[in-house]
Amino acid sequence: MADVNENPVLVERRGAVLWITLNREARRNALNERVVRTIDQAIAAASTDGQSRAIVITGAGDKAFCAGADLAKNTQGFAFAVDFARPRHYIVDLFKRLQECTLPVVARVNGHVMAGGFGLLCACDLAIAADDIRIGTTEAKIGLTPMMILPYMLRVLPPRRLQEMCITGEQFSAAEALEWGVVNYVVPRAELDAKLDWLLARITDKSPTAIRLGKQAFNAIRDMSLRESLEYAQAMVPVMSSTQDAKEGMAAFEEKRRPNFTGN
Question: Which has the higher per-residue pLDDT, 190 or 88?
């Protein structure tokens, strides 16, 4: 089913938060190149617009957050198109964009999450899920393995649980996702947006500079040895302390007032 007569991704600002909604409810919000590149561009724009303090990614409707890659066949009869003239797949472009994004990215998991949609969930910084959703890497059922999203899943899930999921293709519950650290919070569906608003309020009043440098450090240190990470952390302390937000935060603390962070 083509997206000729619809906007497959809705991008809108709600205060200091940029919302990105996968808008393909009839296709269970499945990913194709147009969808992925639109998400990529929206994240890139938000990272430099000077107004956004956080990004929310969600799906249209209440049945699916994202069902993964669109399995509709192309003109050659294949569900997965590969352009050998391009050095990198568009999904990899998006994952790298999420890795480098300077803003907190929150997944609002409003429905089931399958295959590549699970990779998208794992690539977000934080996640809140409705308690009736199911999550799975179902590729084994169609003769595939979740190759493209495996690097992110390995960073989030316990290895034994992930290996079982990949081999069996079976799904797991929101409660299990919470237990295994896949999501931060699980709430009844009716409370999903209230909990999201609560979390966003705790993000958007903090220093954008501290969050930006913190995300950079988190991602860098995760890939380092202990020795390397200690050297990196030591070098980052004076950098962090010299920012305008750090100076404002310390002044506000001394003066017993709310800080006015500018992101500098």
Answer: 190
- Are 66 and 31 within 8 A, CB to CB? yes
What is the value of pTM for the model shown? 0.90
φ, ψ dihedrals at 46, nearest 5°: -65, -35
For residues 16 and 53, the answer to whether their CB atoms sit within 8 Å is: yes
Strand order in the sheet with 105-109: 9-14, 17-22, 54-59, 105-109, 126-130, 185-187
Separation CA 195–CA 213 (nearest Å): 26
Q: What is the DSSP letter of 69?
A: B
Q: Is 29 exposed, middle or buried (0-12, 13-18, 19+ CB in 10 A)?
A: buried
Task: Fill in the DSSP letter of residue 52.
Answer: -
Taking the C-alpha atoms of residue 12 and residue 173, their distance in angstroms, rounded to an integer, is 30
The per-residue b/e assignment along 162-201, b for 16 or more CB within 10 angstroms, e otherwise, is beebbeebebbebeebbeeebbbbbbeeeebeebbeebbe
What is the C-alpha separation between 199 and 175, in angstroms, rounded?
A: 19
> What CATH architecture does domain 9-204 belong to?
Alpha-Beta Complex (3.90)
The residues, any chain, with a CB within 8 Å of residue 201's CB and separated by 6 or more, are: none
Q: Return the domain boundaries, the chain.
A: 9-204, 208-255
Q: What is the pLDDT of residues 192-213, one digit of tens each?
A: 999 999 999 999 999 999 999 9
